[in-house]
């Protein structure tokens, strides 16, 4: 508003009133016209479908009858549903934890080596993030293949029995999480690396002179300085991992016995494949609470940025 | 490769040369002259089988002046089921789409009735098999045409040498290429299967029979259930899973699973094929596609393969069947052209070509189409697929039958039976827990 | 932010220079060791894919050492690139991605400019709203969208489902919010004096955007472009749910659903196709790594 006033002052006093109004009108019309495509896109293809999804979730299977919360009631009585809830949480939390952990340490290692070589290493370590997930997951799928697993071949050389990578529930969950960690860790690395670079070098030098060891420097300097970026990255990753589809779909399609399904894959199975759109919509709506909670936290960070801007 | 278009101009050129062909067109032309037809066929597992089907369609397209667009949709990853469901929901897509087992009945409301052409086809080809009728007719009317390409059963395919050496039973003498040694064949029941599985497991060549969630697993497990008399849901729609028969069959699986590779629960339709072709196992339950691929990629294994009847259970010998159908969507704009093409593909001469191109993989639904020379002749070893089509006193089992179609379709796509097996073996639950779980699932399938 | 000053660590004993250098050398050594380990972890799948893509079906089925190629062959690549189907996927992917990038830029650059510079009623809320939209995953939206398109077809007679261009409508929902967000950030960092100067010179808002903001914020625009490209190149769920015919598919879904088939040993071809699909983003990345990383770190992106 302050700038507006400043502009207004520059306008000669005589024509001030009307031209200011015209100016205002022009300015807001232009601004509105410029944002209109964005608003249309978001309202038509994100907000409206999101609400429509809630409506769909209240219909019966053939979508001819309103059943209120009947679908949710139905889901709550299904053991498989609770298993999917549990798995989605296990999947998201453990994958994000390891992504954050690996990302953090790798960023640290890259940061330690001389600046000259950092670019090369950074470039190499980012590769998993750059390849489309569906594609890299096929590569993993082939590495895990029951008859041709290259991992099992290596293990066989050491006399270890073949591992049922995708055949045993525990191993299958492990594999799915492993692929997710593999794919997501570089992103954490790059975010942390950027944050590490912003920590003033003098702090470390001072600490080193004071005889702080590696762990103390990490605990008392690095972590506090990076707290914000860690929080926001983890939240983001949590949302996306929670909503993941590609990896589970391609690697296990939910099996064995639904024990790797997450919300998205199960919703796809029920809704599109199983012809039960309302039930699928109901399942996918369960991603909303976690989205809401994350959004509140992220908003705080975002507000800060908007204010700074 | 998976798609072929015929340009109209090229067509006109060819047909102009042979105007006689146009005159001789068998179906009422004019109604659909120079139209366009899109077809979603099942993508065949036997290398080269798609090409023959494409050629058959092109023959018809040239005659009828219809542009064709053919998509071959794989069943791997259930891509075909996704496509069918998506087109059903969207009420648009291909004109003709190929559907497995329960899909035609499940989607019957959206399909064009084909009773008229089926009358003619049956008049020429002989009666349709019981299995084909069971899944192709809704309230006495045909809703889809039984497809030749892809219709299959999944009896055992075994490595002859490994069976001779480790099991001491030679499938080639029990099921020779010209008949059946009743005495030896009589011994071939699920108990002997179990004993053979144990022996081969000890010898380091475990059976690669899947317990995953795709058709190969579901079909053969369904046949075992049927031959023990275990039904999940009866024809009236009552849940009948809590029975002694179910307990028996699960008990049998509990004995079998320790002798299988440890990742059979993640098997998809390609895993068992790879297991056999890689030479790692003594037996899989599969149509001759695994053997056909081995012929190309690993000939030593192929020469050692023999297809023969499914083991017998207390309630009879059930061969795991998977019939396919060609269905016409009711929203198709070219129904008459679609019907004309399906009549063409259902001619005995067309059927014979498909059977030959698939090395005998395809099992036609009609009485007069079950004695082509292909099954006797292809090899090596010669006669390996003679006993692949169910001969003698075999019943074709349809997994999830006799449940009402809507429920059966759910049992089939959700793989309830293999999941029950997994629960009480790998999952460490008791048989009763697995049955209780299934009852709960089945209740969920009653949704309307 | 709690910055810790050296003073708070004052209680620790002063150490000798030599030991600092020694510990630095040690840290360096271990850093390299771990970097090598992680590089192996990160690069194993792509390298294994490359190895497999150079094998013939016969060699794969022969169960030899899976990590080594005994008879390298390019037949898988040749076959893919001469086969119409794969080229159709590639073309669809290219057309979709390029169009989506263009649409994204056309929508998000002006919007970001308006939101960051031409403050109007509700602009702050809208900016936040745009960002929140970005947090709604496509896995929540595909089912209602599926119904909506079926409904639209009934009303308008236009078929949306099973056409590759449906993705041009859908992908901007994934790329626009974040790109707008990045651009708001970049525009906000441009000093206000610049626009005042422009206004005094009599420039309109449009001129201000094209003459000043776009050139100055070019690095941000490049980063946003890369983002939009990678998102639309890699998405899997929308094409899986909305396209089925072989000639309508884009690369990732085309590879997963049509190259993997019953014909058991075409894994060499699948891997070749996968690498060809991964190549464009990798090439973009190799040349524009710094912009790419700048884009990623500009705001936190999906991970």
Give the secondary structure arrangement, pairings included.
The complex is a heterotrimer of chains A (309), B (448) and C (303).
Chain A: H1 2-10, H2 16-56, H3 70-76, H4 79-112, H5 115-125, H6 127-130, H7 133-143, H8 150-157, H9 169-197, H10 201-209, H11 214-242, H12 246-251, H13 263-273, H14 277-285, H15 288-308
Helix pairs in contact in A: 4-9, 4-11, 9-11, 11-15, 13-14
Chain B: E1 3-5, H1 8-17, H2 19-23, E2 36-42, H3 49-64, E3 67-73, H4 79-90, E4 96-100, H5 103-106, H6 115-125, H7 130-136, E5 137-138, E6 141-142, E7 145-146, E8 152-153, E9 156-159, H8 160-167, H9 171-174, H10 182-187, H11 190-202, H12 215-227, H13 244-256, H14 271-277, E10 283-285, H15 289-297, H16 299-302, E11 305-307, E12 312-313, E13 316-322, E14 324-328, H17 335-345, H18 348-357, H19 374-377, E15 394-397, H20 405-414, H21 416-424, H22 431-445
Parallel strand pairs in B: 2-3, 2-4, 13-15
Antiparallel strand pairs in B: 1-3, 4-14, 5-6, 7-14, 8-13, 9-10, 9-11, 12-13
Helix pairs in contact in B: 3-18, 6-17, 8-11, 14-15, 21-22
Chain C: H1 17-53, H2 57-61, H3 75-82, H4 84-117, H5 123-135, H6 138-156, H7 166-170, H8 172-188, H9 192-200, H10 205-216, H11 218-234, H12 237-242, H13 251-259, H14 267-298
Task: Enumerate how many helices of chain A there are, as a single number.
Answer: 15
Q: Please write the CATH class name of the largest domain in chain A.
A: Mainly Alpha
Average pLDDT metric of chain A: 83
Under CATH, the topology of chain C is which?
MetI-like fold
What is the CATH class of chain C?
Answer: Mainly Alpha
Q: Report the count of strand segments of chain A.
A: 0
In N-to-C order, the SSE pattern of chain C is: HHHHHHHHHHHHHH
Instruction: Kindly report the oligomeric state of this protein.
Output: heterotrimer
CATH superfamily of chain C: MetI-like
Spatial separation of the terminal alpha carbons of chain A: 14 Å
Q: Give the N-to-C terminal Cα separation of chain C.
A: 24 Å
- Sheet-strand content of chain C, in percent, reads under 5%
Name the beta content range of chain A.
under 5%
* Count of runs of 4 or more consecutive helical residues of chain C: 14
